[in-house]
Amino acid sequence: MAITITQEPEEYSTASNPLAFSFSSTVTTNANFSFVVELYINGFINSTHQVFVQSGDRSKFDCSELVRATLSSPLILNTDLVQDYSSAYCTYQIKVFEKSGTPPVLDAGSGLLSSIVIAFNGALRQIDWINFNYLQYLPWNFNPFTTNQPYQFLTMFPRTELDFVGMNQEKFLGILSKTFQIEFKVNLIDINGVPVPGSLYSDTFLASQAVTVFNVGVQNIIAQTTITQAMFDLAHYYTIQFDDADIQGTTQGASESYKLYIDRDCERYTWTRLHWLNKYGIWDAYTFKMISADETSVQQDTYQSTRGTWDASNEWSFPLSQGEAKSFGTRAKDTLTINSDWISETLQNWLVRSLIESPKVFIEQPEGFERCVVSTKKYKLKTRKVDRLIQETIQIERTYSYNSQID
After folding, report:
1. Please, is 284 exposed, middle or buried when counting C-beta atoms within 10 Å of its C-beta (0-12, 13-18, 19+)?
2. Deepest of 36, 105, 192, 225, by most Cβ within 10 A of its Cβ?
């Protein structure tokens, strides 16, 4: 008797896409044969499954639905430079047994463990999932991918566009990681492309999580590093970069130098900055700068009262103030329509697909983050040839409703 695990998920995989193991046995012709699969998540048994032969001597087990249910990507509410994101990933593996005979009996000695692999809270479209290479996002000096090119941050924001962040706005970036030393670097560049004097900052920390998220908004960098407000006042943009501290190469173990442009536009209208969970489980953001419109829908509960009432003289009268049709309660729900500036088709295509398909969206407010729901249910990937000037309108539902007093 022998079990062979013939296929496993990659070392890092998106949890909402298939996480399939395949396995075979040399005794599948035995009477009443089946596989018994135990699923372990973070080292603890999660569930047990009976799986029958599906092709020749092989079968498969996809645990994505079970694994994804254990993960969550919380909104980052603290000011730590390096964030605890342990809820957004887990380790998992399976143990496969043979079961056969009349009646069928589990062969406890046949159990074979798979490799321990990692799932993170991502959900990719089919073509993106097929082409996904986790090595592209993993800073590691033994990573063969980074021998020829820098690894990427976990965002699909088009690198040909300018990623803007205001002086008082939040911004987050994420990477895949292992347990090793990472060098975190910030550099401020002025309008002439020259580094702002004294603004280069670097620090080394131990990346102990499978997913690492960084809070890289301007004010947070000022609070957590030696970079000052005066330095940012001279900057046109700033770069975020990471190196594997064991190698610190420019083309091996090094990330892309991600540019964040400081948004100093005049605020002609009230800006609305949204943060949403992107397809890698990290938080993307975009500021809608054009005119917005707040609307409120009101629902009233009414009833019909008896016409007339007994007055103080004990006579039946019909005072004007009594009324006949009455409202005993009012509920109000707010919506917001926001508009982007004129944007390129590349930026528009990224924006609508990433934002409208996201399950979690927040409005950045001076008081904090407000949860909202994107009510836009349909979008078009616009092109310059067809749509000429491109602007995007998004409908937002505020999640807190208003309930009046009861009359």
Report:
1. buried
2. 36
